[in-house]
Design goal:
The chain has 307 residues and is α+β, with helices and mostly antiparallel strands. The protein has two domains: 192 residues, Sandwich (Jelly Rolls), CATH 2.60.120.810; 105 residues, Arc Repressor Mutant, subunit A, CATH 1.10.10.60. Helix 4 packs antiparallel against helix 5, helix 7 crosses helix 8 and helix 10 packs across helix 12. This is HTH araC/xylS-type domain-containing protein. Keywords: DNA-binding, Transcription, Transcription regulation.
Length: 307
């Protein structure tokens, strides 16, 4: 009874990708990972399996199983529903984040496991779709025939297995391309939930005024996106989208135009030199201010002063 109870508790808790082998024992043929100082974004394993019956807890990442050799009847249960398919080399199974599952197959197979971290999925959802990842739901397909997805996993595996000059950059780019493809083609976006969340994320009147006051007070300084986000009390990742919804332009465009307007006012209303005005309005130098003002107004600061 004690062993069964521990098993049940374990199955209710999500596990890390490297711990899957405890629940689905097999021969590890190769493994590698990718990421940066902030954390691992992708984990990969090649595993040889005999016929097996597996009960596994959810995983804290998206799992893709790429079938490399052997063919078998595969049965899988996710969310109390069993599905069955005959898988051959080149087929792919996908399982969403934190989805407990049961698997059964009756022949020897060799597979590649690719785990895309929740952090990587979240960053790509924000970057590509301007949406939080929890608004996306993985399509838990047992047998996917997707040549583009297969090509991306093949290229990524080759780079992970044979590290060479530039591998870190190429691995990062391939991981992003793979993640984007999975989001676009093998997830469903809950648009109603996303739109409702976006409405809840709108600037309040007080937040909007704090940002305006901060920009006006600091036009002569080089401040960052993080400084603006902190002023509004918002997350740096979502701030640009929320700012654009409130101001109808990006933070960079807004700050640049405020500098142009301040420079034009100083050109017309003071005797300050153009170099001094450039310094006081945050431009790198007089030439930079001249280019930006002319592009925005069609006239140089000198022409505006003489007008």
């Amino acid at each position: 009874m004690m062993v069964e109870l521990v098993s049940q508790v374990d199955l209710r808790k999500s596990i890390r990708p490297e711990d899957v082998i405890r629940f689905a024992p097999g021969e590890i043929v190769a493994e590698a990972d990718a990421g940066d100082a902030e954390g691992r974004s992708l984990f990969f394993r090649d595993i040889a399996y005999g016929a097996s019956t597996v009960a596994a807890p959810g995983i804290d990442g998206v799992l893709m199983v790429v079938y490399r050799s052997g063919q078998t009847r595969m049965r899988r249960k996710v969310e109390a529903k069993w599905h069955e398919s005959y898988v051959t080399p080149g087929a792919i199974s996908l399982l969403g984040v934190d989805r407990a599952s049961d698997w059964e197959w009756d022949s020897n197979i060799e597979v590649s496991h690719f785990y895309l971290s929740k952090d990587l999925m979240s960053k790509m959802a924000l970057r590509a779709f301007e949406s939080e990842y929890h608004h996306f739901h993985a399509i838990n397909d047992l047998c996917i025939e997707d040549p583009s997805l297969l090509a991306l996993t093949d290229a990524l595996e080759a780079e992970l297995r044979n590290v060479a000059s530039g591998s870190r950059l190429l691995t990062d780019l391939l991981s992003q391309a793979l993640t984007l493809h999975v989001l676009r083609n093998h997830h469903i976006c809950d648009r109603a939930s996303r739109d409702s969340a976006n409405a809840a994320m709108a600037f309040t009147g007080a937040q909007r005024q704090r940002v305006i006051d901060f920009v006006e007070a600091n036009l002569a300084k080089n401040f960052s996106l993080a400084d603006l986000a902190n002023t509004a009390g918002m997350c740096e990742h979502t701030f640009p989208r929320r700012f654009k919804a409130a101001f109808d332009q990006s933070p960079w465009q807004y700050v640049l135009m405020r500098r142009v307007h301040r420079a034009m006012a100083l050109v017309k209303d003071t005797r300050l030199s153009l170099a001094e005005i450039a310094f006081l309005t945050g431009f790198s130098d007089q030439a930079h201010m001249t280019r930006v003002v002319k592009k925005a107004t069609g006239q140089t600061p000198g022409h505006l002063r003489r007008a």
